[in-house]
Amino acid sequence: MKLSKSLAMLLTLICMTVIVVTTFRLSPSFARSTPMMSAQESAEKVTTDLIAQVPGGNSLYTRLGGYNGIAAVIDDSATFIFADQLIGKYFIGLSTNSKQRLRQLLVDQFCQAAGGPCVYTGRTMKLSHTGMDGGLTNNEFNAFANGVSQALDKNRVNQPEKVEVLAFVNSLRSRIVEK
Questions:
Q1: What H or E segment, with its residue span, contains residue 167?
Q2: Which of 161, 158, 146, 143 is nearest to 60 (CA)?
Q3: Do residues 162 and 149 make contact, with C-beta atoms less than 8 angstroms apart?
Q4: Quick check: 144 and 90 in contact, CB under 8 A?
Q5: CA–CA separation, 69 vs 61, rounded Å?
Q6: Which long-range contacts (CB under 8 A, 24 or more apart) does 35-40 make?
Q7: For residues 94 and 176, what is the distance between their CA atoms, to the nearest angstrom?
Q8: What is the pLDDT confidence band of residue 2, given thresholds at 50, 70 and 90?
Q9: In this predicted model, what pLDDT tens digit does every residue of 83-141 receive, in sequence order?
Q10: Which residues pair with 177 in a beta bridge?
């Protein structure tokens, strides 16, 4: 009788351990506390949310063609940006996996900013760009924005939507340019 109680207790303990380990693997946020959002991160979120608002009309996300339209613009932007002599140097040597991760982060960021269902999970713009070759310049940022503009033209995005997307891009300037 004692052996079966000990065995039952051991099996219960093992099951509980498996449940806890599985839960933390599937949801690592349970395993660590979430840090408070800084004022800058909060301001970035507010800026992103406000850009997506369209009073009484279709969201920018819809007007850009949804996820696929935004992804096409990002793919073409990457082509122009990687080939640009001024800013392309930052992408030399990236693995295919790193380029795919960057692409997905940009798609998610632009999708969220345009009012779509995506959630940007990357770092803040300030953190992502701090210290890159001593800091990005306005000219390098302009090269990035120009690549996005060219991609919008290539994808025949209407002028009002192009202006909105470039306004979003420009809203990031102060968090990206260091010198």
A1: helix 159-171
A2: 161
A3: yes
A4: no
A5: 9
A6: 40/124, 40/126, 40/175
A7: 20
A8: low
A9: 999 999 988 998 999 999 999 999 999 999 999 999 998 888 877 777 666 678 889 99
A10: 136
What is the Cα–Cα distance from 163 to 115, expressed in whole angstroms? 16
Instruction: With beta carbons less than 8 A apart as the criterion, state whether 124 and 41 touch.
Output: yes
CA torsion sign, 20 to 21 to 24 to 26?
A: negative
Q: Is the pTM here over 0.90, yes or no?
A: no
Tokens for 179, please give them. Answer: 């010198």
**Predicted pLDDT at 26:** 44
How far apart, in Å, do the first and last CA atoms of the chain sit? 76
Burial of 30 (0-12, 13-18, 19+ CB in 10 A): exposed
Write out the H or E segment, with its range, that includes residue 34.
Answer: none
CA distances from 28 to 4, 14, 46 (A): 35, 20, 26
The residue behind tokens 């949801």 is: 27
Q: Residue 175: pLDDT band by 50, 70, 90 thresholds?
A: confident
What token pair was written down for 92?
């030399």
